[in-house]
Amino acid sequence: MLSHVYVGINDFEPAFAFYHAVMTDLGTRLRFSDAAKPWAAWQPAEGARPLFIIGKPYDGQPATCGNGQMVALMAPTRAAVDRAHASALAHGGTCEGAPALRPHYHANYYGAYFRDPDGNKLCVVCHDAG
């Protein structure tokens, strides 16, 4: 369904450190990184799409986050949710909801919420039992 998601960032080095740590915890692999552009992208361990891309906005204006916008990333396990949340906080993110079961979504919804250093809201979630 998705080809790629592009998230605007303002300062490449801390944004790359933040996202590289989180994406590693989720089992993705780096597809490319170019600090001169600046942008970077990750892809699933198996397959080429969808891509998750960070970079400066194409219009040259500062990146801003939108109210009500969020990107939710799949985690292979609940432990990966825990690791990704911890990595996010260790790399300049802020907590928007600690890892936990959220049965009001469904019985096995285990997720965590955080913001990146630019204020973009993200979720990491595992939908599997146990």
UniProtKB/TrEMBL annotation:
It comes from the Bacteria. PROSITE patterns: VOC. Residues 1-127 form the VOC domain. InterPro entries: Glyas_Fos-R_dOase_dom, VOC_core. PANTHER family: BLL2941 PROTEIN, GLYOXALASE FAMILY PROTEIN (AFU_ORTHOLOGUE AFUA_5G14830). This is Catechol 2,3-dioxygenase-like lactoylglutathione lyase family enzyme. The lineage of its organism: Bacteria, Pseudomonadati, Pseudomonadota, Betaproteobacteria, Burkholderiales.
